[in-house]
Amino acid sequence: MAKMTNINIVIAGNSLRGFVKGLFGNFNGKQSDDLTNADDRIISINSSLDVIHNEFGLTWQIHASDSLFTYPVVKNHQSFQHVDFRPIFKFTDQCPGNVVDVCGDDQASRFDFCTTDNTSLAESTRIMTEEIEVMAEVALLVCDDISNFTHGYWNVNNRSADLVCIDNYLTTDSIVLQCYDNGTWVIPVNINNVCQRIVCDLPEPIDNGNWNVSGRNAELLCDDHCTLNGSSQLICDNEGVWELITSACLRPGMSSEIIKWQHKL
C-alpha cells in the first residue's frame, strides 16, 4: 500500500466556535470565509483549484521554528519541503481499464488512479474514504453549550443536564434536559423562576447575646463579659426551619447546668 498521511479533524465542542482557523477553515459556521489565508485575506470558495492552492493553501506552510514534528536522524524540516511541487488540478479521462475494480465509485480514488496509474495509491485513497465515512457515522454528538439561569446552573453529563440551584435556593422540581440529535437543548420557558430562595425567619432570641444572620447560617455573638457555651453556628434547613438551639451565653458565675435545664423547658 502507498504511504499516505491521513488527517482527521476533531473540534472539541462549540466553545471553540469562532476561535479556530487555518488550512481546514474557520470554525464559525460561515462557509464564505473558510478559505481565509494566513494573511487574513478571504479567497472566494468559487475560485479555481489552482488559485486555492497558491493563494490559500501555500500561505499556511509552516517555518522550521513552528514545526511540531520529530524528524529522523540526518533529516530536518527542510528535508520534507518540495517548493517546486505543483499538483495536477484537472481530471483526466485517460484512466486504466480496471479503474472500476480498483476504485469503485470513489471519485478521490479515481482521480489518483487516473492521474498517477498507481494502483496502490488509489487503493489507499479508497480505503481512507471508507474509513472516514465509518467515523462520520459513529462520531460523537457535540451538544451546544448550555447557558446558566437565574439562581442556578446545569450539571452536564454527556447528553443530559441536571438542574442545580445555587446556595440558599431550592427547587421542588427535578428537571433533567436531554440533548437532541441535532446538538440542541430544549429549555423550559419558566426556567428563571424554578429556583426559589429559601426564606428563614430570625432564630429565637437568646439571653446575653444576639444572632448574626447571613442567608441560612447564623452565628451567635455573646455580649461583653459573657462566655459562649456550645457551638456558635446555627443552620437553617431546606424547609426554612432553624436547627435546635443548644448553645448559650453565660454571665460570669452562671452555671451551664442552668442553661441545659432551661433548654429542656
UniProtKB/TrEMBL annotation:
Domain of life: Eukaryota
Subcellular locations according to the entry: Membrane
Source organism per UniProt: Mytilus edulis
Pfam families reported in the protein's UniProt record: C8-3_MUC4 (PF23263)
Keywords recorded for this protein, A-Z: Disulfide bond, Membrane, Sushi, Transmembrane, Transmembrane helix
Domain Sushi: 198-251
Upper taxonomic lineage: Eukaryota, Metazoa, Spiralia, Lophotrochozoa, Mollusca
PANTHER family linked: MUCIN 4-RELATED, SUSHI DOMAIN-CONTAINING PROTEIN 2
Protein name per Swiss-Prot or TrEMBL: Sushi domain-containing protein
S-S bonds: C222-C249
Entry's Gene Ontology cellular component terms: membrane
Domain VWFD: 1-68
InterPro entries in the cross-refs: C8-3_MUC4, Epithelial_Barrier/Signaling, Sushi/SCR/CCP_sf, Sushi_SCR_CCP_dom, VWF_type-D
Cross-referenced Gene3D superfamilies: Complement Module, domain 1
